[in-house]
Design brief:
- The protein contains 19 helices and 14 strands.
- It is α/β, with parallel strands linked by helices and 469 residues long.
- It has a 14-stranded parallel sheet with strand order 1-2-3-4-5-6-7-8-9-10-11-12-13-14.
- The chain is globular and about 80 Å long.
- The mean pLDDT is 86.
- This is F-box domain-containing protein.
Length: 469
């Protein structure tokens, strides 16, 4: 719709993975259904029409401006099912149409790179062209409801998958996943996400033991647990010595001896550490020996309070010290501590040492008995500290509880920030800053180029980092 050159350049790019665009309602994308229909052979069209599937009257391949499927490098089973459902609501008809689509896709697509096979019902590896298409697969996403025999079939063809993403929705182990992992020659990225809270067996053991054999290539490990105790991961975690990213949402029940062992684990390449629902002491133990290259230490600060209920003050102080002693390259940091003089002193040391810090997610664990004036004083101390000691790389501050800044103190802070400082974004859950006098002040400094954003959000989770990978 701009010119021919733009069109010829963009269409191959858009069609590399046309099934995965956020915001597109594929259930109502009749244009994609028309394109798929155009590729069907006349005898297939006759068969499909007889089954009661409504094909577009313009379903003629000669009408297409491009050979769209020749650009495609991906299959997304759920999205394709949504598009094909436009032709018929009957399960059998949809199944037949999907079978024909996969058949023609295997003929047209020169290579398959991305495959989201969640809830697939077609044995596509039996197609004559399947071996040539699947042997170069780079990314696979599936759930544990798929029959193991399907994964055994894929294991015979796919040996070069670099990213495997598993959604666990079944109560029993899926041994096909372990086999698929076992045959990979260069597995770099693995994700496991529990969606079933009522597991009857341990679904992790065989899968993680297969993962251990890939420890020389595995750089990214993300595991979210909702079910049973994740002792298997705790036992094998030390063996993943090449990790650059470690993300977990499962609590580590560690004894004193296990914590000492954790301090001795070595991840020389670790750059991103994101442990949710864990004690600050566990995070401190990991960074004590592995913080040299860390750029992100992320967690939801309010969740650590429950995990550190009896030793919060001690663990939070130790955490701040471990960060500034071991993480000179840190860029994104979640942090929580009580507003004591000792904690503020260590926090200021952190700001002085960590010169690459770009974003700070902060929660002050204030006492419910603190008066309004005391809360204002804590806020004033924080702003003064940021002016005195934070580096010029800091561009974002996320405040996880109701920090109070008087209008005068906030204006003084912004005036000082405008001098040799980058434009700043501030996020808060305190509704005070929606009041007219605060909005007027904030808009003034937005217009002056001192503030980029000053956002108020409703819920705590909205202020936490969304991008954790």
């Amino acid at each position: 719709m701009v010119n021919r050159l733009w069109c010829e350049t963009v269409v191959p790019i858009l069609w590399r993975n046309p099934w995965s665009y956020d915001g597109v309602n594929y259930n109502n994308k009749s244009s994609l259904f028309t394109i798929i229909s155009c590729y069907l052979f006349d005898n297939i069209k006759g068969f499909i029409t007889e089954q009661g599937i409504q094909l577009p009257s313009s379903s003629n391949q000669s009408l297409l401006l491009f050979d769209y499927l020749s650009f495609c490098r991906s299959i997304n089973v759920n999205t394709i099912r949504s598009i094909i459902s436009i032709g018929s609501t009957l399960d059998y008809n949809q199944f037949s149409m999907q079978q024909e689509f996969y058949s023609l896709f295997m003929k047209k697509c020169p290579e398959l790179k991305y495959f989201d096979m969640r809830s697939i019902k077609h044995q596509i590896f039996y197609f004559p062209e399947a071996k040539a298409r699947l042997e170069l697969l780079c990314e696979l996403k599936c759930d544990t409801s798929i029959d193991s025999s399907y994964l055994y079939g894929l294991s015979q063809l796919c040996h070069h998958i670099q990213r495997i993403i598993i959604i666990n929705i079944d109560q029993k182990p899926n041994y096909g996943i372990a086999k698929l992992i076992e045959v990979q020659k260069n597995l770099i990225h693995f994700e496991w996400d529990d969606y079933d809270e009522y597991l009857t067996d341990d679904p992790y053991k065989d899968i993680f033991l297969a993962l251990v054999k890939k420890s020389d290539t595995l750089h990214y490990l993300k595991v979210f647990f909702d079910g049973i105790d994740n002792t298997t991961l705790q036992d094998i975690l030390p063996k993943f010595h090449k990790l650059k990213t470690l993300i977990s949402d499962g609590y580590f029940f560690l004894t004193k001896e296990q914590l000492e062992r954790l301090k001795k684990q070595v991840y020389h390449d670790l750059e991103i550490l994101n442990l949710e629902w864990n004690s600050l002491n566990v995070i401190s133990c990991i960074i004590e020996n592995n913080g040299g290259r860390l750029k992100k230490i992320l967690f939801r600060p309010h969740d650590t309070i429950d995990c550190d209920y009896y030793h919060f003050n001690e663990h939070s102080l130790n955490f701040i010290r471990k960060v500034h002693e071991n993480c000179p390259l840190i860029e994104y940091l979640s942090i929580i501590f009580p507003p004591s003089k000792e904690h503020f002193t260590e926090f200021e040391n952190l700001l002085k040492v960590c010169k690459n810090l770009k974003s700070l997610l902060l929660l002050l664990d204030m006492d419910i008995t603190d008066t309004y004036d005391e809360v204002l004083e804590h806020g004033k101390e924080l702003l003064n500290m940021l002016i005195r000691s934070s580096s010029t790389s800091l561009i974002e501050v996320r405040l996880c509880n109701r920090f109070k800044f008087s209008l005068k103190i906030l204006e003084e802070f912004l005036e000082k920030w405008r001098v040799n400082r980058p434009i700043l974004s501030i996020y808060t859950i305190d509704s005070t800053y929606k009041e007219e006098d605060y909005k007027e002040l904030i808009n003034k400094y937005k217009n002056d180029g001192v503030i980029k954003d000053f956002k108020h959000v409703t819920y705590m989770d909205e202020i936490c980092y969304n991008e954790i990978s």
